[in-house]
Amino acid sequence: MSRFATINLLEIxxxxxxxxxxxxGRFGRKHLDxxxxxxxxxxxxxxxxxxxxxxxxxxxEAYVVAAGSGRVLLDxxxxxxxxxxxxxxxxxxxxxxxxxxxxxDIVAVGGPKPEGGDGVMGTAAWPEAD
Length: 130
Prior knowledge:
Elements: E1 23-27, H1 29-32, E2 38-44, E3 52-56, E4 61-74, E5 77-81, E6 86-89, E7 95-110, E8 119-123
Antiparallel strand pairs: 1-2, 2-7, 3-8, 4-5, 4-6, 4-7
């Protein structure tokens, strides 16, 4: 592992592709040659509500709203997000995002990735009143 590394998240290929139309995900961990730190960029098209959610078995994450606005579903609670908000999420909390009218760009930061990963995908259960 090198002593330091630099990347531009916008220059990393989208890893989401057709699996989630309107969402791009650029994962920086391997490009940073990092053992303990993951940094990724997720971009959501305007007014897109993610139908998918996820949890982790071990990994705590923090999300920084770099551009736009929107909402985050955390278990059964929905919180408003605006630029430069930071949300820390414990591993077992179900999370999903919804972009506002200008879209939503989020930088996700995570700790060490367990062997084989620990993310578990599921369906986002957005409250009916929303």
